[in-house]
């Protein structure tokens, strides 16, 4: 067998899988061009054969060139906790170590390097090196700690590292460990109309609706990502392509619930003004969410509210001002940097409308978040930076109120938030963390049965090597921010914890490939953060799932995602209810899939065909034949279980409401502990929230529910549906 060439060796060492299999099992080998693009995005020089050889040698030597790895993740209950130290072979020098625990406690000691157990020896660049093991005190508690080592004989690299001690499993409350499990509703917050909202579902609507559905027996309310988007480009509405995953979208702020609104008589008087009232009525009555109109209505008011806050509180040093300063301090450098990005975006956008990329249109000096020019700008525009911090403070306060409403009404879980896979390349997180991101790469997915051309999501992924060198700080901050005020967190595309599908430049998804990530470290950190926040973790593990991943999620008590649409055997039969795992969130579909009414009527197939999203000429007819078989198989299953009347196999007379109820009863009697019923299904809505593969061709992320939530909460349909599920899954 021939030996791999240096490029292939480098790719394998860097974590690039040489080939991938699509959902049908076909094998696709990565091209030379794809491997070069991936390696270049990781910061390795590969333009020439000489550079490839040099990069290979440097990457192979990297673990031996530093005394300590940047981060070591340790299991809480392991009796063999060790950190590896790299030193010169035969070194017997004395050394000292100190662990400064997160809570301030210190552990320290002296060692002789030659007395430590040796794990590995290697000759690197002509030097004989050894990896020896330093035992970590068993009493070191859960958390993030700092290790320092000093002495002669160590490798020349860093002598400081982060130690993360994590629990064996994620947090799971008693309600999900026994009994029939829980149920709740899933919705897109922007579409939750309220009688008083300003054309977009807001945090006030979330609080009110949460209290209402709790009265129906729901224990959870699952919502779309609340991530910060682009205020200057409100048409960029996808919550899965945000500017920042760490901060909130201020358009969700309920204007009239801001405390400063009550202190602005002139502003309160202006709202009923005929012109203002007419604009708000138009926003409420629009059939789709008008993001530009909502932004035009809300943002000027928010600026006036901040001005009032300055006059009434900041300049006077009131208790409310102190609370704001505390929020600024606790949110730290991440909020300061995000608010600076927002202020810079406004400054360089000027009077332009729409998208203005920091990567292409900002002066070069300001593209660097650490440049002297950026620092000077933040100092010169302190009020504007503080304004954007104020928006985050108020958004956080209102989200906390929604979470409190869930708890007060007895919901055992409350809000289930959603963490998007990544961020837009032109957003605040990509600007702040550009050294950690694989530039010129988009994450995506290979072709599957619902997306026959594959998907490119346009989200630049983390460089796994840089992420580890940063001791996983950006991920930790993301998890922590999104578990805030939540009883559960759905992690979109959790397969990215073990491997992520990268696509170079403008290439098609079929030209992409998988990059490996440190699964065990990422799962351990997620478990640690879940315990700290008392937050259940749901992993979205749909599509091409790596072998063994679901077993690892189950062992970590991270819930799998099981959809009725996908739970079918090779012969097309739907799997029985008892086959669903206990540790699973069960549902019919997701925001990227057709609602059950739309699926049943084949509306999704018609739309995709009309928009030329099917790759083959006979794609539509093939999908319609498959859908007919799926309908028949679902009817067979539901009738065999006594959930539908045993009428003839013809499905033309099946009522959609009857079908929806039967399907959710089926899921409710499954072992899956965490049932989410999409409101779109319950209300008979045909259109799906998002049609993958489209941007402007379809009204993605803009559809509203058909009535204000105040009417919906009183509707016989919602009440009867809630009673049905509560009988099967009582509190």
Describe this structure in words.
It is a single chain. The protein is an alpha/beta fold. The protein folds into three domains: 6-62, no CATH class; 77-166, Sandwich (Immunoglobulin-like), CATH 2.60.40; 174-728, TIM Barrel, CATH 3.20.20. 38% of the residues lie in helices and 18% in strands. It has an eight-stranded parallel sheet. Strands 3-10-9-5-6 form a five-stranded mixed sheet. It has a four-stranded antiparallel sheet with strand order 17-16-19-20. Helix 1 (6-13) packs across helix 2 (32-41). It is globular, with a radius of gyration of 27 Å. The relative contact order is 0.12. The model has no long low-confidence stretch (mean pLDDT 94).
């Amino acid at each position: 067998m021939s030996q791999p060439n240096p490029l292939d060796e480098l790719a394998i060492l860097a974590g690039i899988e040489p080939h991938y299999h699509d959902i049908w099992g076909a094998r696709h080998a990565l091209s030379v061009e794809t491997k070069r693009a991936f390696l270049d995005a990781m910061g390795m020089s590969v333009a020439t054969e000489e550079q490839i050889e040099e990069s290979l040698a440097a990457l192979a030597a990297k673990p031996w060139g530093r005394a300590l790895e940047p981060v070591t993740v340790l299991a809480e209950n392991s009796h063999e906790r060790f950190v590896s130290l790299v030193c010169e072979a035969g070194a017997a020098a004395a050394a000292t170590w100190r662990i400064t625990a997160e809570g301030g406690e210190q552990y320290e000691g002296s060692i002789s390097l030659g007395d430590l157990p040796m794990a590995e020896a290697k000759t690197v660049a002509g030097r004989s090196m050894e990896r020896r093991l330093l035992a970590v005190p068993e009493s070191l508690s859960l958390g993030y700690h700092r290790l320092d080592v000093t002495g002669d004989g160590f490798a020349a690299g860093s002598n400081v590292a982060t130690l993360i001690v994590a629990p064996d499993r994620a947090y799971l409350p008693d309600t999900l460990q026994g009994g029939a499990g829980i149920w709740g509703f899933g919705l897109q917050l922007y579409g939750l109309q309220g009688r008083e909202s300003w054309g977009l579902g807001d945090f006030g609507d979330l609080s009110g609706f949460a209290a209402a559905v709790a009265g129906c027996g729901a224990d959870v309310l699952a919502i779309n990502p609340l991530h910060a988007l682009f205020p200057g480009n409100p048409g960029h509405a996808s919550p899965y392509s945000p500017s920042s995953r760490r901060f909130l979208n201020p358009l969700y702020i309920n204007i009239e619930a801001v405390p400063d609104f009550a202190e602005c008589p002139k502003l309160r008087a202006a709202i009923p003004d005929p012109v203002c009232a007419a604009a708000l009525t138009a926003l409420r009555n629009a059939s789709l969410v008008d993001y530009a109109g909502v932004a035009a209505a809300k943002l000027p008011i928010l600026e006036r509210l901040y001005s009032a806050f300055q006059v009434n509180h900041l300049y006077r040093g009131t208790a409310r001002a102190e609370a704001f300063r505390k929020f600024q301090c606790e949110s730290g450098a991440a909020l300061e940097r995000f608010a600076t990005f927002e202020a810079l975006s406004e400054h360089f956008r000027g009077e332009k409308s729409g998208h203005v990329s920091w990567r292409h249109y900002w002066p070069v000096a300001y593209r660097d978040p650490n440049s002297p020019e950026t620092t000077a700008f933040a100092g010169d525009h302190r009020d504007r930076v503080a304004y954007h911090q104020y928006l985050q403070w108020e958004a956080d306060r209102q989200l906390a109120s929604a979470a409190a409403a869930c708890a007060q009404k007895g919901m055992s879980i409350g809000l289930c938030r959603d963490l998007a896979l990544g961020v837009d390349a032109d957003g605040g997180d990509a600007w702040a963390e550009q050294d950690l991101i694989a530039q010129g790469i988009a994450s995506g997915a290979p072709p599957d049965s619902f997306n026959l051309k594959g998907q490119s999501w346009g989200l630049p992924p983390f460089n796994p090597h840089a992420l580890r060198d940063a001791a996983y700080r950006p991920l930790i901050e993301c998890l922590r921010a999104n578990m805030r005020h939540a009883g559960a967190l759905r992690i979109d595309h959790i397969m990215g914890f073990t491997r992520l599908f990268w696509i170079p430049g403008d290439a098609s998804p079929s030209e992409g490939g998988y990059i490996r990530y440190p699964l065990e470290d990422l799962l351990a950190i997620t478990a640690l953060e879940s315990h700290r926040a008392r937050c259940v973790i749901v992993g979205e593990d749909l599509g091409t799932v790596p072998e063994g991943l679901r077993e690892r999620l189950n062992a970590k008590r991270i819930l799998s995602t099981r959809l009725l649409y996908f739970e079918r055997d090779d012969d097309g039969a739907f799997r029985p209810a008892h086959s669903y795992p206990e540790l699973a969130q069960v549902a019919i579909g997701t925001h990227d899939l057709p609602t059950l009414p739309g699926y049943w009527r084949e509306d999704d197939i018609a739309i995709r065909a009309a928009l030329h999203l099917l790759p083959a000429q006979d794609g539509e007819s093939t999908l319609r034949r498959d859908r007919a078989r799926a309908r028949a198989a679902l009817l067979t299953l539901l009738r065999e279980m006594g959930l539908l009347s045993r009428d003839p196999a013809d499905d033309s007379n099946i009522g959609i409401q009857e079908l929806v109820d039967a399907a959710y009863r089926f899921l409710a009697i499954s072992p899956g502990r965490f049932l989410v019923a999409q409101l779109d299904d319950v209300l008979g809505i045909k259109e799906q929230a998002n049609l993958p593969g489209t941007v402007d061709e379809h009204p993605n992320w803009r559809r509203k529910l058909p009535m204000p939530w105040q009417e919906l909460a009183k509707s016989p349909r919602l009440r009867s549906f809630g009673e049905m599920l509560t009988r099967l899954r009582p509190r």
